[in-house]
Amino acid sequence: MSRLFTPLALGPVTLPNRIIIAPMCQYAAQNGLATPWHTMHLGNLSHSGAGLLIIEATAVVPEGRISPQDLGLWNDETEQALATAINAVKAYSTMPLGIQLGHAGRKASTAVPWQGRARVSEQQGGWQPVAPSALPYDDNETAPTAMSAQQIADVIAAFANAAQRADRIGFDVFEIHAAHGYLLHQFLSPLSNARDDRYGGDLNNRMRLVLEVFRAVREVIPAHKAVGVRISATDGVEGGWDLEQSVALSHALHAAGCDFMHVSSGGLSPAQRIQPGPNYQVSYAERIKREVGITTIAVGLITEAEQAEAIVATGQADAIGIARAVLYNPRWPWHAAARLGAQVSTPPQFWRSEPHHIKNLFQH
Predict the structure, then answer these.
(1) 120-160 tens-digit pLDDT
(2) Rounded distance, CA 235 to CA 215, Å?
(3) 197 near 149, Cβ under 8 Å?
(4) Helix, strand, coil shares of the chain as percentages rounded to 5?
(5) Average per-residue pLDDT in the chain?
(6) Chain-centre distance of CA 40, in angstroms?
(7) What is the pLDDT of residues 292-334, one digit of tens each?
(8) Three-state DSSP string of 213-226
(9) Which of 28, 74, 208, 357 is a good FRET partner for 160, with 20 to 30 A between their CA atoms?
(10) Is the model's pLDDT at 169 over the cut of 90?
(11) Residue 288 in 3-state DSSP?
(12) CA of 29: how far to CAs of 26, 82, 176, 236, in Å?
C-alpha cells in the first residue's frame, strides 16, 4: 500500500493523503481583492486529488504585500472577495483548504516576477517597506524603515485579525509565513535583524516575534483547526539563520502547540549559496522531524511519484509539498496514484476519464 496516499493528521485536521499543494503567489489580485482568476485557479487545483490545498501568501496589511497585485485579507472588502472565491470552490470540492498568512517586510513593494521584481516606487503605486532594521535586501535598494515597538504590536494584531477573517471564510488549516526572506524570517536572521531591543540580539529575542504571532493566531482559531509555520531552515549564508536555530525554533513552536512545520530554505539574501536539485531541502525536514517530533512537510524539487513515496515511506517527512510541479501538471496526484496503485477522490464528472488500463483510480 502506498504510504503517500494514507491519511495524515495535521493536529486536529485529518487529510486524506500526504500530498500538499504549497502556496504559490498568483499576482492576480486588485487592491488585495481576490478576482475570478482565484476562483478558476483554486477550483482547478481543488480537483487535483491532493490532500490539502494551501492558497498563496495572503498579506495581513496592505504594506505587507510583495507586489501591488498580491492577495490580501485585512478588511471586510478583502474578506468578502476571498469568501466569494472560496465558497465557489467549496461548492464543488471536499478538499481541505489552507491559507498562508504573511507580511513581506523589506521585500515588499516590488513588481511581479514577469516584470523583473524591481522596486515599485510610491509614485508608481508602491509604498515604503518596513523591516526589523533599516537594512535593504540588496545594496542597490533603498533601505526599509525600521519598525517601532508599536508597529510590531500592530503586525501581531494584524495576523490575528486576518486569521479570524480566514476562519470565518471556512479555511481548515492556517500557515504562518516565516520563510523566504519575508518579515518574520527577517526578524529571525541576524543578517537582517540588528535590533538592540527585546526583538533583536540573541536567538530567543530573534524568535520572539514568530512565537508571538503564532500564539496570537492560535488563540483566535478554533481548536478543531490546524495552525503551523513555514520556515526557511537556512539562509545559505555564513553567519545567518541556519538549521541549528531552525531546530530550536521548531522546539519552541512545538511546545507552544504548533501543529506542523513546512520546511523550505533561502530567500533572505542575494548572497545565498543554495544549489537546487531533487530533494535538496528534504534533509532539513528530516532533521526537524527526528529531533523535535513535530509533523513536517518537505519541499524542494519533488516532481516524481516514486520520489515523493520514498520521502514519506522512509520517514524523512510526514508529507510532501508540491508547487511548480502542480502548476505544470494540475492532475499530478492523479498520476501519482496511478503509478503507485492508489486512489484519489474527485468529482463524479471526472470518473469516466479513467484510462482503460488503470482500474479503480477514483474513489466512488
Answers:
(1) 999 999 999 999 999 999 988 889 999 999 999 999 999 99
(2) 25
(3) yes
(4) 40, 15, 45
(5) 97
(6) 20
(7) 999 999 999 999 999 999 999 999 999 999 999 999 999 999 9
(8) HHHHHHHHCCCCCE
(9) 28
(10) yes
(11) helix
(12) 8, 10, 20, 32
pLDDT of 139 reads 87
Report the distance separating Cα 226 and Cα 224, nearest Å: 7
The verdict on whether 27 is a catalytic residue reads no
Q: What residue spans of 221-259 are helical by DSSP H?
A: 243-255
Q: Which residue has the cell 535583524?
A: 193
Q: Which three cell numbers stand for residue 259?
A: 501543529
Q: How many helices (H) and strands (E) does the chain have?
A: 10, 12
Beta strands in the chain (DSSP E): 8-10, 13-15, 19-21, 52-59, 97-102, 130-131, 145-146, 173-178, 226-232, 261-264, 296-298, 319-322
Q: Are 232 and 268 in contact (CB under 8 A)?
A: yes
Torsion angles phi and psi, residue 211, rounded to 5:
-70, -40
Cell of 130: 518596513
Q: What residue ranges in 16-72 does DSSP mark as E strands?
A: 19-21, 52-59
Q: What cell was used for 166?
A: 480566514
For residue 130, list its beta bridge partners.
145
Closest CA to 320 of 334, 305, 330: 305
Catalytic residue among 137, 182, 199, 284: 182
* Residue 140 confidence (pLDDT): 86
Q: Dump pLDDT digits (tens) for 237-291.
A: 999 999 999 999 999 999 999 999 999 999 999 999 999 999 999 999 999 999 9
Residue for cell digits 512545520? 261
Q: Which of 325, 321, 353, 357 is nearest to 341 (CA)?
A: 357
